[in-house]
Design goal:
This protein is 85% helix and 0% strand. The chain has 328 residues and is mainly alpha-helical. It starts with a helix and ends with a helix.
Length: 328
Amino acid sequence: MERNFLLIFSTMFIGYTNVVYDRQSIPYAAPVIAKTENLQNSHLGFIISSQHLGYMIVKAFSGPIADLVAPTILLSASLFFTGVTLASFTVASSVLLFAVSSFLCGFAQGPAWGACAVLLKQLVKPEQFATWWGVLSVSSNIAGTIGPFLSAYLLEAYGWRAAFLTVSTTTMAFSGFAFVVFKLFTYGDAKATDKGSTRQFRDVFSPQLGLVFLSYTLVSLVRGACSDWGQMYLVQSKQQPILVASSFSSSQEIGGIIGSIAAGYVADLMISKNSGNVKPRYAISLFLTVLQTFGLLAFIFSVTAQSSQLWINLWAFMIGFGMYGAIT
């Protein structure tokens, strides 16, 4: 069963890496698309925001959906339709069609994370969940680290339409592989959960979940600001070279990889020593949120045009460590 678990987990890991990279492909290619399609920055903002909107709508309900539908089917379907909608983006010829395709692409990606969470919870013991959740979370960091370089190569070599078709075809093919793996090796363990609807509805409004929701929202705001605007902030406001700005993003993702794994491992260790009590997770999350806030404030107020790359990367690493660790 251990070998089967590793195969299933690896499939989930690679699958979600695909989903994250597909979601970031449009922002990565935005400058090239703007140039070839004569789009303005406002058009790009509308297109990218449409994707975020579609993703947000479905992700909000991905957990309940994964409780009703087998998470293996949900994840495979999310991968397949992500590839389909990304391919449809290549045949669009107007801002409106680009925005619709972008919205549908985000819509298709939404269920993937909820499906991964439910499937992982069914496959591992509660005292091991945070560790494996942390490792699975690294998939988004890997997509964020490798994605810009892979996109730059594909865009330069083939153009944005051929690049998108290559990525979308790969994602659709992998969805078929994932479906077969889940079908053959889960042995019926990964099924939709059977909980009463009243209990589920009451749990949604519990104070603990409200605290988690608020914390996740604040951390996600920081993640969005750093990921989307961090490089531009360094170049325009701090007069740093583009190379240093790029290293800021890489250091943040590296910090996220280590923070995700470390936070999951320490949380599981503390819970095992406290007879399954989940309260240590709140303390760890609070500490990492404070660490992220300190790193962000230090980055804003201590970095100048004369700051070294090492100094900037230090704060980027701290931000990523605290941010992704808190999410885990």
